[in-house]
Amino acid sequence: MPTRVLIPSGVLCLGFDRDALARGVAAKPDLIAIDGGSTDSGPFSLGSGTSKYARAVTKSEWRDLMLARAQADVPLVIGTSGTSGADACVDWMYQITCELAAELGQSLRVARLYSGQPKARIAQALADGQITPLTPAPDITADAIAQMTNIVALAGAEQIQAALATGADIVIAGRTTDTAIIAALPLARGEHPGGAWHGAKIGECGALCSTNPTSGVILVDFDETGFTVEPLAHGARCTPHSVSAHMLYENADPFLLYEPGGYLDVTQATYHALDTRRVRVTGSQWISGAYTVKLEGARAAGFQTTLIAILRDAHYVAHAQDWADRLQRFLMALITQRMGLAPDSYDLDFRLMGQNAALGQMENRIGAPVEIGVLLIITAPDAQTAAEIGKLANPHMLHYPLTEDEELPTFAFPFSPAQSDRGPLYEFALNHVMALDDPMSAFKLTVSEVRP
Known about the structure:
Elements: E1 3-7, H1 18-26, E2 31-37, H2 44-48, H3 55-72, E3 76-83, H4 87-104, E4 108-114, H5 119-127, E5 131-133, H6 142-146, E6 148-153, H7 157-164, E7 170-173, H8 180-188, H9 193-203, E8 218-222, E9 226-231, H10 240-244, E10 256-259, E11 262-265, E12 270-273, E13 279-282, E14 285-288, E15 292-311, H11 314-318, H12 320-339, E16 347-353, E17 372-380, H13 383-399, E18 419-435, E19 444-450
Parallel strand pairs: 1-2, 2-3, 3-7, 4-7
Antiparallel strand pairs: 1-8, 4-19, 5-18, 6-15, 8-9, 9-13, 10-11, 11-14, 12-13, 15-17, 15-18, 16-17
Helix pairs in contact: 1-3, 3-4, 7-8, 8-9, 12-13
């Protein structure tokens, strides 16, 4: 019998088709697996140890999955809990699980897999030559490691297998590779290793490998020679093209995928449509290698304040970049004069929304915009300084003229107050791998009996 994994969605809080989920449960899966986050939204979640997703939405969707798990009577696994997989995010997800267990009257064994790394462990591994930079990666030192607020290691299949081996009904994992939570059980059952990792990669984002990406729910059957993938929403189909194309998703090489303990090679894989919905894949190969885990870290990089003004006067819209450049020079001189701050102690970043805010000099738009939103991002070492610079900039964002010999203009502030204090800013500070002799040596596993 194949190992059947039900994947409700690409990530918890993205939504899924409830009817399709019910069909998946009726298909008698061996495991329900879902991702809980990623680095897509930047370093704040990891730096702060908080989830970017609404707690109410998380609880609502997790309720559906806990009910599905109880009906199917199989383990439910979530990886990269709370967006970043930091230890605090695992605890946050565990608290939600305990609340739901009480509300639903469920008795559960819950395994928590912690991926957080003590700074001393990482510093020692660096000193021992066990840490290697990826590309790109910042230079790191023991002092730089000490400044990080959170460091996580990406768990692989072995750590998820250890959690499942406890007999857990629910596994709440910290940072994991997206594929590990899916590949772990097929690998433990002796299914084809190339097929296990390849099928996990195809299934990591749910129905994104199908013609109806937003429907969420898919089934992947793993066996001794490969895997078969099927979307469960009505009207959704998997095709050889939609399935093979997913190797390009978030992957630098469309044929190779690196995981803890080796890499997946799909250069010899074949994709065959079994019917209008299902695709069969064989020929994928797993190449074993040194056991390393990827490290992610974040550190505080200052505090931010933002202001937004809107330019609609055609004269200013046409010369928005000149205006922003002149205003930046004026403000920097004023900040030095009035606040005594050196130019290298803060940062002023003007973004012209509607002109070049996303692509900068690479923008190649046709036609002039009717209006431009000017976003000023102020970054300083502390919140008070960032806020003070924002207040200094405020009247000039509203009235600064393009030239000295024209009347003062008046622009629009969409908010009152115009200034928004964003709080702490974080930046990614690690993109490295760490060698491990024992896959569990950098991870902690806790098992709890949760009673209603």
